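Incident log, structure service

09:12 report received: a user says their structure output differs between two submissions of the same chain.
09:20 pulled the input from the user's history:
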Amino acid sequence: MACRRATKGTSARAGGVDEDVSFLEDSDPPTKTGVTSYLHIEKTSQEAIDEFYPYHTHYFQQLGRSRGRMIQLSRSDYEQNASLQGAYFVGSPQPIIDKLLYQHEVFGHQRFMAQIDIGALPYKKVAQTIELLATQVAPIVRRETAEWR
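09:34 re-ran on a clean worker, output below:
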């Protein structure tokens, strides 16, 4: 996948929202940008989606209770958020790579911050996600975005 970055005078579109990103290049030096999201990686995307859903749900139930309101996302909403144009990075390594590169084309970001440990996800699964990110995802994303660093 070829990468192009959002440049001065352009707008970015992700998750159904148009955003003017021209201000990012107006500073000297240019502003560093990043994206952040929930992250869970498994050997297969279906396994990642199925496994992470209960922890995601638990997290939002606790968050809602602490704020005095109910926060619920349906399984359908969750799966939509785990799609290429959705907000969550949940899947096997290749869809995570594809999504990072897709968002890099949209935003031209230099950083990705992942929130992995939500909803009491077991440490073994957190460590596995970090390992897969470091060994299978990050090297490819770094190689594909090298010209923009």
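09:41 both user submissions now match this output. Likely a transient worker issue. Closing.
09:42 reviewer note: Residues 123-145 form the longest helix (23 residues). The first strand starts at residue 11 and ends at 14.
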